[in-house]
Amino acid sequence: MAVPVRRTPAVRISSATGKWILLTTVLGSSMTLLDSTVVNVALPRIGKDLDADLAALQWTVNAYLVTLAGLILLGGALGDRFGRRKVFVVGVVWFAGASLLCGLSPDATFLVAARALQGVGGALLTPGSLALIQASFHPDDRARAVGLWSGFGGIGAAAGPFLGGWLVDGPGWRWVFLLNVPLALLCAPVAVRHVPESGGESAPAEAGRGRGRFDVLGAALGALALALVTYALTEAPNGSRTVAAVTAAAGVAAGVAFVQVERRRAAPMMPLDIFASRTFTAVNLVTLCVYAAFGGFFFLTALQLQVVAGYSPLRAGAALLPTTVLMLLFSARSGSLAKRIGPRIPLTVGPLLCATGMLLMLRVGKHASYAGDVLPALLVMGAGMVTLVAPLTATLLASVDTARAGLASGINNAAARAAGLVAVAALPLLTGMGPEAPQVPDAFDAAFRRAMPLCAAVLVAGAVLALATVRRPPEDGRGPECRTHGWVTAPPLEPRRGPRTSGPGGTR
């Protein structure tokens, strides 16, 4: 049998094809990015229009995250096997179709189901965006292409909350989801016509990973474990404690089964030997702490500003801009600083600054002043995120072999999303937030004031963990090509340098 020859991608960024590829990947990633940044702003209006209680609002966020976090590694593997462009286009169409269902939802139950379908589309779409860049562009142009992709994505992240607030105040919250449909109608035809295919039958087998074999059982068990634990945490305050306990136990059992399957699988979705790197394991534990706190913070803050402080959706969305703007302006410099002094200090100081910002949010109550109460907290929060996010990604990639960088970033991405969804499910339970809290300002305010110290404590735990366990990875000249961060709720999928193509966790 002939040995497949690895071909170096040859598309130049200045060519027409290169511009079409950039347009396609920016449009595709913008769909998931806008969705992740605007939905929180729309939650109070969704609750009012659909008569949804707190649990329904939690599921509006978490149904999407459960399927996305559980299936994102499998989505990357499907692109490798069947073609990255093909799976990317399927993801775009699927995501748009689910978004249409979200926008047409007659009740909260229908919306939650549509959000879960949207997460499946996101799991197909998200890994493919950067994978197409890695597989298509000439190595000399790849870093610049990824930088442009990241820059435009950052602009989308910055505009997301503002756009979401404008849509909710104007044509209505349904357009938060319906906006994805015209984006998909532009993105999918451009991808089919102008983006070259990669992967599929012409792709060589990646090192040690058999082609054509998918860890479907592992993906199903991972998603099931997340769904069961999230259900138990969300329903415990309102339903039977016995049912919640049994569901939680079943979720833990599914998680144990997932680990056992991954240990014995010939081609696992998440090879456990990657955790042999102490730094990789430590960074992922820090990620769990940090992004659990972030997930809870952004979910509750968007509600606090509207339910308690009386902000309109537009004003609440605009209020959150400083964190994203600070990351866009300074994250690359933070990454360079961490490269000089090592990651230990940034990964310790960053969470502590974020914790301080969350405690400052305790000043935000009825009739809160933006300049005097909200802005100082968000500026401190943004400074902490600037200090933290870029060094975390760079340290993660430097902690594993170069050939596994895409797998490492995919695992980290899934961990961040899983941490966020568990936090959104657990915080109302831990703070005694009742199902009608979003409609009762005093009750919600009291729960918010109990939640912020909890989020801050988780960040302090992450800082202590970083101080105790994170060390400088070996110097080998490697680092992320994408050094600008604009996403505030999950780390970006970062590619490695070099000509190899995407892996199951996104790009390699």
From TrEMBL:
<feature type="transmembrane region" description="Helical">
    <location>
        <begin position="173"/>
        <end position="192"/>
    </location>
</feature>
<keyword id="KW-1003">Cell membrane</keyword>
<feature type="region of interest" description="Disordered">
    <location>
        <begin position="472"/>
        <end position="508"/>
    </location>
</feature>
<dbReference type="GO" id="GO:0005886">
    <property type="term" value="C:plasma membrane"/>
</dbReference>
<feature type="transmembrane region" description="Helical">
    <location>
        <begin position="112"/>
        <end position="133"/>
    </location>
</feature>
<feature type="transmembrane region" description="Helical">
    <location>
        <begin position="280"/>
        <end position="302"/>
    </location>
</feature>
<feature type="transmembrane region" description="Helical">
    <location>
        <begin position="145"/>
        <end position="167"/>
    </location>
</feature>
<feature type="transmembrane region" description="Helical">
    <location>
        <begin position="451"/>
        <end position="470"/>
    </location>
</feature>
<dbReference type="GO" id="GO:0022857">
    <property type="term" value="F:transmembrane transporter activity"/>
</dbReference>
<dbReference type="InterPro" id="IPR011701">
    <property type="entry name" value="MFS"/>
</dbReference>
<feature type="transmembrane region" description="Helical">
    <location>
        <begin position="87"/>
        <end position="106"/>
    </location>
</feature>
<feature type="transmembrane region" description="Helical">
    <location>
        <begin position="20"/>
        <end position="43"/>
    </location>
</feature>
<dbReference type="InterPro" id="IPR036259">
    <property type="entry name" value="MFS_trans_sf"/>
</dbReference>
<keyword id="KW-0812">Transmembrane</keyword>
<dbReference type="InterPro" id="IPR004638">
    <property type="entry name" value="EmrB-like"/>
</dbReference>
<protein>
    <submittedName>
        <fullName>DHA2 family efflux MFS transporter permease subunit</fullName>
    </submittedName>
</protein>
<feature type="transmembrane region" description="Helical">
    <location>
        <begin position="374"/>
        <end position="398"/>
    </location>
</feature>
<keyword id="KW-0046">Antibiotic resistance</keyword>
<feature type="compositionally biased region" description="Basic and acidic residues">
    <location>
        <begin position="472"/>
        <end position="484"/>
    </location>
</feature>
<dbReference type="InterPro" id="IPR020846">
    <property type="entry name" value="MFS_dom"/>
</dbReference>
<feature type="transmembrane region" description="Helical">
    <location>
        <begin position="239"/>
        <end position="259"/>
    </location>
</feature>
<keyword id="KW-0813">Transport</keyword>
<feature type="domain" description="Major facilitator superfamily (MFS) profile">
    <location>
        <begin position="21"/>
        <end position="474"/>
    </location>
</feature>
<keyword id="KW-0472">Membrane</keyword>
<feature type="transmembrane region" description="Helical">
    <location>
        <begin position="55"/>
        <end position="75"/>
    </location>
</feature>
<keyword id="KW-1133">Transmembrane helix</keyword>
<feature type="transmembrane region" description="Helical">
    <location>
        <begin position="344"/>
        <end position="362"/>
    </location>
</feature>
<dbReference type="Pfam" id="PF07690">
    <property type="entry name" value="MFS_1"/>
</dbReference>
<dbReference type="GO" id="GO:0046677">
    <property type="term" value="P:response to antibiotic"/>
</dbReference>
<feature type="transmembrane region" description="Helical">
    <location>
        <begin position="410"/>
        <end position="431"/>
    </location>
</feature>
<feature type="transmembrane region" description="Helical">
    <location>
        <begin position="213"/>
        <end position="233"/>
    </location>
</feature>
<feature type="transmembrane region" description="Helical">
    <location>
        <begin position="314"/>
        <end position="332"/>
    </location>
</feature>
